[in-house]
Design brief:
Length: about 290
Amino acid sequence: MFVGVHTVLAPPEKRYLIDDCQPSLYLTTDFSEGAGAPQVIGLDHWRSRVTSADPLDPFPEVDPLAVAAIAYTSGTTGNPKGVMHSQHNALLPGAVAVARGSYDADDIFLCVQPPTILNLQVLNPLTTIQAHATCVIADRHDPVSLARWIKQEGVTHFAVVPTVAYDLLTHPDVHPHDLATLTKPRVGGAGMPEPVKLLFEERFGAKPATSYALTEGPTLVARQDLDRPIVEGVAGGPCPTSRCRCSTTMTGPCRLNLASFKVPSEVWFVEAFPRSPLGKIARSQVLAMAKG
């Protein structure tokens, strides 16, 4: 079972996660963080153990509904809460994306944010494996380094927060030919104004699609369809892996809105495949706008 501990967390935040999930093994570059875990090892030791280990034969049978990972919420309204995700939950978004033709073996993903975030594990390595594609893990996310990775590796897809896309757009040392292979840019984590997306498309030749993700998802629950008319501030319709229900005082369709927070609402996302219940119901208190 996987639990990611983000390196940017403060020591007390890391300590809370470790104490809460009680890991049997803690893999870290800072041994002072792992107090309380039965076994703490460094990256070099881990690499040595993996290299010298015998392959599993036969490979153990995996229960698709067994817990595969725990993702912790941000804790903005209290202590972070652990959300259990099954093997099925973690693989489903990538399986659906591949089945719909969103990605194939010719794609090269660039994983920009740390894979300690389960959403990024699902969006990048797990989707890459199912598409038989290639995944490049970036070791930094400054614009010049990212542009070099994209050009050097022929990256076709990345998913970043809007500030990273904006830095690529405005940095004087990032040139259009650096991002020539990038055909599927995605942004999430916050809204990105449509004029900025159009400027990105004008400079680099591909328009970013906005998405909305939840720790409880895991990852994507809504994404823009660039083949349909775009409504400013709207993150798009529910992904095929989710069902969405909005409760609002306004009439007309309710679309998840990240920019114009005017109508208090409750937006519920639930797993579209009831045989695989989420470990924690994704009941997010958000603000949305109903547009007829």
